[in-house]
Amino acid sequence: MSRKKTKRILVTGAVGQIGSELTMELRKRYGNDKVLATGRKTKPSKMLLNSGPFEFIDITIRDTVEKVVNEYDIDTIYNMAAILSAVGEEKPLLCWNVNINGLYNILEIAREREMNRVFVPSSIAVFGPETPRDNTPQDTVLKPTTMYGVTKVCGELLGDYYFKRFNLDVRGIRYPGIISNETLPGGGTTDYAVEIFYEAIKNRKYTCFVKKETMLPMMYMPDCIKGTIDLMETDLLKLKHHCNFNLTSMSFSAGELESEIKKHIPNFNCEYKPDFRQDIADSWPRSIDDSAAREEWGWKPEYDLPTMTEDMLDNLGKRYE
Predict the structure, then answer these.
(1) Are 178 and 228 in contact (CB under 8 A)?
(2) Closest listed residue to residue 133, CA positions, set 289, 285, 291
(3) Beta partners for 215?
């Protein structure tokens, strides 16, 4: 198995919620010119554009990926490009094309070039109604009810296949809902947990698209970025799992999040008007067991609901008030 020193890193989906902040942290750690950010059509921020190289590619069109891989001598890929759960239900064929056909292109290019390592994110969307919803085990039933979830199960299996069949070092995390004060989410079922902060700061009110009692696993972006890079930097010999690590730092209901925000903004008002995303949320875990990640590569989150809420409101308050 290839263990070459990292030459250059490619981040697909670098304009997205996780990809944008991941790219900046990777550039901070490895050097701006060592990390190529890519997107399909969304214009990158000035910070992303000015801090290092950026190219437009489409992972579903293999030639566009191969071109930048060759030009920048790419050795490691973080494949963050994806169609998320809510958009995936509206456009299931697009979801499959990007999340599976695009992933296949990435893995094939990495295999042919004997790349050092590939990161393929998964999601709690791999779980379904038949999965235990409380303290969901690492190894359990995977029967999702969304196209996004189906593609993520396939992605985990495909990544493990490339690891076992071709000795390609593929790794992945089942992300919970990710909360960020930098980049807005892009069409996921947990978007309410981000939107609520922006609306609390700007308008003092929010209409939530899931029920007040809806509880889901969540994670603050600094923990998300730390966990992702920590996994990628872990010695392979320590890992028993590869593409499917459960990961979380907290679980809370929409009502609990509202209450925590009200501790800082007493006049904040939240209404609850569930839409089609409620059914998706109801098929996902309320909390998950991430002991495998803690045991195999030392995962330990730094934020809980109170500290995350305080930091979110502090950062957004400085920006908008």
Answers:
(1) no
(2) 285
(3) 253
Catalytic residue among 72, 148, 272, 303: 148
Query: What is the Cα–Cα distance from 141 to 131, expressed in whole angstroms?
Result: 5
Indicate the residue type of 168. Answer: L
State how far the Cα of 312 lies from the Cα of 207, in Å rounded to an integer: 19
| Residue 148 a catalytic site member | yes
Contact 308, 256 (CB under 8 A): no
Answer yes or no: are the C-beta atoms of 15 and 4 closer than 8 Å: no
Cβ atoms of residues 110 and 169 within 8 Å: no
Q: Which two tokens stand for residue 58?
A: 């489409």
In this structure, the number of other CB atoms found within 10 A of the CB of residue 278 comes to: 16
Task: Please provide the DSSP assignment of 262-282 as one string.
Answer: HTT-TT-EEEE---THHHHHH
Collect contacts of 231-234 with beta carbons under 8 A, ≥24 apart. 231/119, 231/171, 231/173, 231/293, 231/297, 231/299, 232/76, 232/78, 232/117, 232/119, 232/171, 234/296, 234/297, 234/298
Contact 288, 135 (CB under 8 A): yes
Strands 76-79 vs 117-119: parallel, antiparallel or unpaired:
parallel
Tens digit of each residue's pLDDT (9 = 90 or more) over 233-261? 999 999 999 999 999 999 999 999 999 99
CB-CB contact of 116 with 110 (8 Å): no
pTM above 0.85, yes or no: yes
The mean predicted confidence, pLDDT, of the chain is: 95
- The amino acid that residue 235 corresponds to is D
Domains of the chain: 9-177+220-246 (3.40.50.720), 178-218+250-286+302-320 (3.90.25)
Q: What is the pLDDT of residues 67-90, one digit of tens each?
A: 999 999 999 999 999 999 889 999
What is the rounded CA–CA span in Å between residue 188 and residue 178?
A: 10
